[in-house]
Write a structure and sequence with these properties.
mainly beta; 7-stranded antiparallel beta sheet; two-stranded antiparallel sheet; 1 helix
Amino acid sequence: MAAYSFMDVTASFVGPGVVFDVGSGSAHSDEGITVAMAGNKNTMTLGIDGEGMNSLLPGKSGTITINLLQTSPVNKKLSLAYNAQSESSATWGNNVIVIRNNASGDVITARGVAFNKLPDMKFTKEGGTLSWVFDCIKIDQVMGVY
């Protein structure tokens, strides 16, 4: 029987002037890292006579959400990168995120990565989480085997 552990997940954030780890050991919340494709890969069109056609769509865009504890030191690194990159269109959207599961061999590479916005901040009775959402122009995924 195969087993999964977030401890096997490594992730890196590389952009203009920054390189740092955002994988296991970065003080993630229970939600961890989410990769979501923006659209379908296929459009099915049916004719009036019941015949059909599949159309392969070229898009590979999507989002990556990195959920961190409010006390994670990675929040500062991401906020500094956000502030620096938002000063110029020359530095905006030039990040790369690579996520790997070393146990299964999963590899996800996102290019053309831009910050969606700063995460919502809450100052409450108990410490919370920060969700960093990134818009990605190209996401390539290769699933491994457990």
